[in-house]
Amino acid sequence: QVQLVESGGGLVQAGDSLRLSCAASGRTFSRYSMGWFRQAPGKKREFVAAISWSGPFPNYANSVKGRFTISRDYAKNTVYLQMNSLQPEDTAAYYCAATQGTLVELTRNQDYWGQGTQVTVSS
Fold first, then answer.
1. Residue 64 and residue 73: Cα distance in Å, rounded?
2. Contact, 120 vs 89, CB < 8 A?
């Protein structure tokens, strides 16, 4: 059974940092692109960041570029999202996703989802 389990969310103040983790289990995700999406109350789920199975050239939404960094540890089957300079508009439930394919394929279709972790940024 494939599982993606997110952790690291919480309540922070504007300007603070958080690091989200997504631990994958049930198979080897070395050939999977993995990424993060978020959904704020009353809004559609949106793409945040993704990293390919080969690692280089991660992709970011314009709204987080320069503030968020995605990385992955192949040995631990884990992907991370380092979030710096958090703002109230970053408040959302953050979801990890995985797709056997490219970054573009991940943004269009997701094979697996995690259950989400809440990030709340107060002003």
1. 21
2. no
